[in-house]
Specification:
The protein is mainly alpha-helical. It is 71% helix and 0% strand.
Length: 104
């Protein structure tokens, strides 16, 4: 749904960075893994909702981070470039789509 408000660039970037950060912080807590997984996803969704940065696919970031025991460089080496790449591809696809619809 490229026209969805949930797919806006600020939602994509903010949602992914926020939820990944939550996953990295929750990972530091001395809790059972099951509780960390639930807390990471729940807290990410609540914060995205509260900050107006809802991007549903970003809710999986805490799961990925906790299940693969990522560290802080994952945030700027993987999540940030990945989100920026998604935004660039979306922008290019939108331009390509509008150029095809516009008669020359």
């Amino acid at each position: 749904l490229p026209d969805s408000p949930l797919a806006r660039p600020q939602n994509m970037l903010g949602g992914h960075l926020l939820s990944a950060t939550v996953g990295l912080v929750v990972q530091l807590l001395p809790l059972p893994m099951e509780l960390k997984l639930a807390l990471g996803v729940g807290l990410s969704i609540a914060l995205m909702q509260g900050l107006g940065l809802i991007h549903p696919p970003a809710g999986a970031n805490p799961l990925l981070i906790l299940l693969t025991t990522q560290s802080w460089p994952f945030l700027w080496q993987t999540v940030l470039p990945g989100a920026l790449l998604l935004i660039m591809v979306s922008h290019c696809a939108r331009r390509l789509q509008t150029s095809r619809l516009t008669p020359t």
